[in-house]
Design goal:
The complex is a heterodimer.
Chain A lengths: L4 H19 L18 H25 L2 H32 L8 H21 L4 H29 L13 H4 L3 H38 L1
Chain B lengths: L1 H34 L15 H6 L2 H33 L1
The chains are: A mainly alpha, B mainly alpha.
Chain lengths: 221, 92
């Protein structure tokens, strides 16, 4: 119970948001209609991605200071899990955009920023795949990972706020607080964010453990 | 021959009646809609929400389906977690 309470919490929170997210009353907004409920599912993907990619960054910095290959394993697997959530976020966002903004993809600062961010992280895996030697690969990709997270902050947090964006809370648009996140929605949205972050961390830890086992059996052979 | 004519006339009459009644139904429906709770003011059209879906109760089916899918994924994750734990113990 000591070690896995947060896994149970993740299950409870995400199940709660799936059920309450459909049943709790939401404000009636033109254009959005019931799709406003996507906030409970689409946005937590990005919160989850950013948190897990931060874990990846943290372990990359750790690797640069201690040269422990386990930190490199955590950094890589966290980046993998972050990409999973990121791609889910961009696909769900595209579907949502089709039925509210009218197109699968619009030239919006945040959309393009998200796409560039995903490409930057894909390049991280390309870089890793192109280096044979373990220590070298770990060191160079750790440095690149720091650069990648800085770019993520620029493309997802800074540029959308400086330019006009269709996303709420960016550019000339009012933020969630005034516009469409009422107290009812908060009751689902915050647990959803926490639940998906925990779920992402859980998936990441499983991947890390598998990778460590793989390494152990390879070195034993 | 006369019988035939009678039959044809009867059918035509029925058709008219049914058409008339369905027309009346339509009018009633329009009335219901216009006096329904969803009507907004003249300047602001009502925002369409899934009220009807809730009335029919079928949204719960979707909720249950999603809950089952998520429960399945969680069960799978838990199994994976245990499998890895077992492997970790074995390799020690």
């Amino acid at each position: 119970m000591k070690n896995y309470w947060w896994k149970i919490l993740a299950i409870v929170l995400v199940l709660y948001t799936v059920i309450a997210g459909f049943l709790i009353k939401v404000p009636a907004q033109p254009i959005l209609h019931e799709t406003i409920r996507n906030l409970y599912f689409h946005v937590p993907m990005w919160f989850g991605m950013m948190t897990i990619l931060f874990v990846s960054l943290w372990h990359s910095i750790k690797y640069l200071s201690n040269s422990n290959i386990e930190s490199d394993i955590v950094a890589t697997q966290a980046a993998h899990t972050g990409m999973l959530l990121g791609f889910l976020g961009i696909i769900t966002g595209s579907i949502w955009a089709k039925y509210t903004w009218g197109a699968w993809w619009v030239s919006d600062t945040k959309l393009n920023g998200a796409a560039i961010t995903l490409l930057i992280y894909l390049a991280y895996f390309v870089l890793r795949g192109s280096l044979e030697e373990e220590q070298k690969r770990a060191r160079i990709s750790a440095v690149y990972n720091i650069f990648a997270y800085v770019m993520l902050i620029v493309f997802l947090m800074i540029l959308p706020r400086l330019n006009d964006s269709l996303h709420p809370g960016n550019g000339g648009n009012p933020g969630f607080n005034k516009y469409d996140l009422d107290s009812n929605m908060r009751m689902v949205f915050y647990p959803a964010v926490l639940g998906w972050i925990l779920l992402g961390v859980w998936i990441m830890t499983i991947k890390v453990r598998i990778e460590k086992l793989k390494r152990k059996t390879l070195t034993n052979d | 021959m006369i019988n035939c004519l009678k039959k044809a006339g009867f059918i035509v009459l029925l058709a008219f009646l049914s058409a008339g009644s369905s027309f009346a139904q339509q009018i009633e429906e329009v009335k219901q809609v216009s006096t329904g709770p969803l009507t907004g003011t003249e300047s602001q059209p009502p925002v369409e929400m899934a009220t009807g879906l809730y009335q029919s109760g079928k949204i719960y089916v979707v909720v249950i389906v999603l809950a089952v899918i998520m429960a399945g994924i969680f069960a799978y994750l838990t199994m994976l977690d245990r499998k890895v734990s077992r492997l970790e113990k074995e390799s020690k």
